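debug: dumping io for the single-chain case to check the tokenizer round-trip. Nothing else runs in this session.
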Amino acid sequence: MNIRRGFTLIELLIVVAIIAILAAIAVPNFLEAQVRAKVSRAKADMRSLATAIESYYIDHNSYPPDGDDRGDFQFDSAARLKGVTTPIAYIIVLPTDPFNDGDQSRIYGPLDPLNAMFPGPPPYTYAYNTKGSFFGDFVDPLDIALPMNPTNNGSPDNWGLTSMGPSRQFDSALFQMPITYDPSNGTVSMGDVIRQGGRIYQ
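debug: decoded output
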């Protein structure tokens, strides 16, 4: 007569422990892979936007203006980049920052109390700012602290795109110095994914 034996409690506990150990190893690696994929996507999006911005320059001899270059002081980043989608579609759709989840308390904090850069609900495109090589008679003190956004007298000849990066806040703006994301500092670390272009970067 064959007697069927089930698993003992010890054997079941060992199997559960092994599964738990494998999960503890796999989940962090999976999350890191997601972050790396988002960083790669942000860089690819910025390359596409850079092509559109430079194509805009060829036609207009100036880059799309940011808030301090426009007569209506439009600070909304999507509105700043509207020139690359209409009336001529240098890029069909503005790509969105995979790290900007709309939590305004972490974006700029006290630097952007009115949520001017990213109004409304997400998704949001990348932050776009311009820089000019000619300052004229007036220099905004904030422009010195934030070198990507000086007064350009309406004629920007350099530009910058910024993603919040895995920290999900604009570290460069908060600390008033360029902080570039580097995955070697840890997959989820401080720093922004930045791309700059224009006359002084060529």
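debug: round-trip ok. DSSP finds five helices and three strands in the chain.
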